[in-house]
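step 3/5: co-fold with zinc ion
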Amino acid sequence: MEPVLRLAVQKSGRLAERSLEFIKECGIAYSRNKAKLKTTAYNFPLELLFLRDDDIPKYVASGVADIGIIGENVLAEKEQSVELVERMGFSKCRLSVAVPQNGEYPGIQSLEGKKIATSYPNLLKNFLAKQGVTADIHEISGSVEIAPSIGLADAVCDLVSTGSTLLSNGLKEVEVIFRSEAVMIAQQNLAPEKQAILDDLLFRIKAVLRAEDYKYVLMNVPNDSIDQVVGLIPGMKSPTITPLADSGWSSLHSVIKEDDFWEVIDNLRKAGAQGILVVPIEKMIL
Ligand code: ATP
Ligand code: ZN
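step 4/5: write tokens
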């Protein structure tokens, strides 16, 4: 039988959609029957298992799945022996302590002896221990943010991205204890034939991730400004330059990193570039 790599993804929830979109962007096709827990890709030796995110580290550690996509927060909380093989750059959030908006918060010492509701007891306990604080940690599995308003806890430790859920529950964020994004994990000591499939998959994932970081730009540049403009673009290799029908002008193509995007564009315009087109890149292979 041909070897197949088993990938566990979240069945439904905040990671589910982007995880599957990512697999599609890697050129892997499959069809999914929502009633079923697994499916097999048509054009890549990959089987997808749809599970609750909290269970994925355990399944990967025990070999039920070979790899998985989860939040780094879950990886850190579960303390299972698995490898982190790639940061995926989506589902960025933080795990934070929040207290009622109308209460005082003089500092972390004020959490001493307080009741804190969370789904992340290990991360919270370790964080508080480092600060020399002992609190009464109440583990609950969902709707943590309502705990203070129903008298179940004095504070919460929960995932935050914009903070709007905290706000609408009368809470304010006071301590960030962990920053998270989606990560790919793998079983330790994968069999060589599975490792080879994972290497192929990671090659594709890296091409997708890199493409997300860059934009392709095309622009018209007066010939006497070319040297100056080229100096402004930290491109992949040297940019492509072709003459335009209008003598005295050239068309220049290159890539720009998303992070420095607006600054570079501003400088290009000042240097005389015109008709700047910016195009998303689908895959980028070095
Ligand atoms: P499951 O039913 O699979 O156990 P869940 O309710 O535990 O799902 P979700 O709320 O879907 O989990 O969150 C899954 C992961 O998405 C979290 O562990 C975290 O890494 C990330 N995440 C959670 N909240 C946010 C947020 N507000 N913004 C971005 N990412 C988030
Ligand atoms: Zn979960």
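step 5/5: annotate
The chain has eight helices and 15 strands.
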